[in-house]
Specification:
Radius of gyration: 23 Å
CATH architecture of the largest domain: 3-Layer(aba) Sandwich
Helix content: 40-55%
Structural class: alpha/beta
CATH class of the largest domain: Alpha Beta
Number of helices: 12
Shape: globular
Number of domains: 2
Largest sheet: 9 strands, mixed
Distance between the termini: 68 Å
Strand content: 15-25%
Order of helices and strands: HEHEHEHEEHEHHEEHEHEEHHHEEE
Length: 387
């Protein structure tokens, strides 16, 4: 009789135990990502990567048996709508983490997510957010635009091939905050490396690139730079490069992270400082992405923004996994988990992550890519600034 009772208890336990994990509430992450406007094309790709990554994780074991729920909301760049979306995520959904693709949205919402103590990943972390004493809840999976620009200057200093004089560089970009905030410190850094800096060229109307060609050509003809550092969206960069392609300029172009992706494949010889692996690159971390792509949408094409979304979810899942068990799960615990990352690798999708309570920059290194034969090809290994 006793053996029979024990057997019944075992059967009941085995029947109920799977439900204990599966019936637990999901781990909720909010994501504000633009589906239209300047960042719409890359934003949609990033959102697709995040959605697929969460689906891929959940079809395995989730996060310690719990489902990861990514709540995607279109970032319309309308203040009232953005605030309403944020309040829903914070108050109704009670998210543990927040992701914002747009730097402009992050700048407008930083007082709110810091007040509510929500660890927040920003697609492109402005350098001022690296000050942890002022911005303790801001994170990213890639180096700041300032660090990436410095890496580009290191590349120019070491690899320009110019021996008899200093290499000359100009900066070209949008006139908003995302195109300018890193320039002063980058120029100072470049001069210390022995690089001469020419006049800037600001793109004030990104919808009409042709009108900026005359002043751009005037600057290039007057200064004759060896390199131009380009800070635009990839679609804008493509439009600009198409306009000047027929000019026969000798200036070499190096693009920042947001400008350099698969949209630039028609322009052989263009460089990019890019910490994110291009879609399909032959690296270990691409295995899951290829599996998901082949299983769910084999006829689609993707860009490195898709890889960025996938990698973001992998980092978020790791932080949430480290924050469990549930009785201790909180936003503060998630923040502490993120600050415990040490050389965390994702198979080459992004540089190894190290995040501390004193420095939320995930890394200070990146590769340089080049467009070669219509493909994004590795030009260098990781170039590191050192912390």
């Amino acid at each position: 009789m006793r053996k029979f009772s024990i057997l019944i208890l075992v059967i009941v336990f085995l029947t109920i135990f799977p439900c204990i994990a599966l019936c637990q509430p999901s781990l909720k992450v909010g994501a504000l990502i633009p589906y239209s406007g300047r960042w719409g094309d890359s934003g949609k790709e990033c959102a697709k990567g995040m959605s697929d990554a969460a689906k891929w994780l959940n079809q395995r074991e989730g996060i310690s048996g719990r489902k990861l729920e990514i709540i995607l909301i279109d970032d319309t760049d309308q203040p009232a709508e953005t605030m309403a979306a944020y309040r829903k995520l914070n108050e109704a959904d009670r998210i543990l983490l927040l992701y914002m693709y747009s730097t402009e949205t992050a700048l407008s919402m930083v007082p709110h997510f810091h007040y509510d103590r929500i660890p927040t990943f920003i697609g492109s972390l402005p350098s001022q957010f690296a000050n942890v004493s002022k911005y303790p809840y801001a994170f990213s999976i890639t180096p700041t635009p300032l660090d990436l620009a410095k890496i580009a200057m290191n590349f120019i200093s070491d690899k320009s091939g110019i021996k008899v004089r200093k290499p000359k560089v100009i900066f070209i970009g949008s006139s908003d905050h995302s195109g300018r905030h890193f320039l002063d410190e980058t120029k100072e850094y470049a001069r210390a490396l022995g690089i001469n800096i020419g006049p800037d060229v600001w793109i004030t109307d990104v919808s009409n690139m042709a009108k900026h060609i005359p002043p751009l050509l005037a600057t290039i003809n007057a200064y004759n730079p060896d390199f131009a550092y380009l800070s635009l969206t990839s679609k804008e960069a493509s439009s600009l490069l198409e306009e000047i392609k027929k000019m026969g300029l000798k200036t070499k172009w190096i693009c920042n992270k947001r400008a350099f992706d698969e949209n630039l494949t028609p322009f052989d010889g263009i460089f990019g400082v890019q910490p994110i692996s291009p879609f399909g690159e032959d690296i270990p971390g691409m295995a899951g992405i290829k599996e998901a792509h082949q299983k769910w949408h084999p006829y689609d094409s993707h860009t490195l923004s898709y890889v960025e979304g996938w990698a973001t979810v992998q980092v978020i899942a790791e932080a949430l996994g480290r924050s469990l068990p549930e009785q201790r799960l909180s936003r503060e615990r998630v923040k502490a988990s993120l600050e415990g990352f040490r050389d965390f690798v994702l198979g080459g999708l992004i540089p190894p992550l190290t995040i501390t309570a004193k420095d939320h920059r995930p890394s200070v290194e990146s590769r340089i890519f080049i467009i070669k034969d219509g493909k994004l090809s590795r030009y260098t290994g990781y170039i590191s600034l050192g912390r």
